[in-house]
Design brief:
- With 193 residues, the chain is mainly beta.
- Helices cover 6% and strands 43% of the residues.
- The longest helix is centred in the C-terminal third of the chain and has 7 residues, at 164-170.
- The chain starts with 11 loop residues before the first strand and ends with a strand.
Length: 193
């Protein structure tokens, strides 16, 4: 008899809600619309932020210091010794809508950058993210300091390598792109990836 144990890599992100009661019946309506958030840290030394967990965006996107219309903490690349600035790009996703023609899910611009990321209890060097400096629609990036995107679909301007889930897998932080919710109470819980 031979037994083998497979060790799995995963992270557990604590989250809080921005709105009222969170239940298993309304989670499908809450998750896609920026109503839960978690904390991450970026840079050396670390700058920590609350980011919306979003299922319609595949990117890690943090509002940069040049972003004008936000009262939330902003990432200041000049304060990080490990920051590397890349190409300036626009990132967009639209989906067809019966009456409107299309709905823009997100549309923002910024530098495709790299820096050190601390997420849950894991620290990753050279993680790619968007240092956002322009937002073209008003209801995206409207709360907190950015987006922790868990979508698995490609979008305009996004390569497979830029997708946050793929970066976490490449760095052996997670084994798979499956996640589940563990409720602590009606306002908070853990997102296990």
């Amino acid at each position: 008899l031979c037994l083998s144990f497979i060790s799995s890599s995963y992270i557990s992100l604590h989250f809080d809600t921005l709105i009222g009661n969170l239940t298993s019946s309304n989670i499908k309506n809450i998750l896609p619309y920026n109503y839960i958030y978690t904390s991450i840290c970026v840079g050396s030394p670390s700058q920590c932020f609350n980011l919306n967990i979003e299922l319609q965006n595949p990117l890690l996107s943090i509002i940069g210091s040049s972003y004008k219309s936000s009262s939330y903490p902003k990432y200041d690349s000049s304060k990080s010794s490990t920051y590397k600035e890349g190409e300036y790009k626009t990132f967009k996703r639209s989906e067809p809508a019966p009456l409107e023609g299309e709905i823009v899910i997100f549309n923002f611009a910024g530098y495709e950058s790299t820096d050190t990321l601390t997420i849950a209890d894991k620290t990753i060097s050279n993680i790619s993210f968007i240092n956002v400096d322009k937002n073209f629609i008003s209801d995206n990036l409207k709360v907190n300091s950015g987006i922790l995107g868990l979508d698995l679909r490609l979008s305009e301007g996004v390569s497979k390598e830029m997708m946050l889930i793929n970066q976490l897998k490449k760095n052996n932080v997670v084994d798979d792109d499956v996640f589940y919710i563990e409720y602590k109470d009606e306002h908070k819980g853990n997102l296990i990836i």
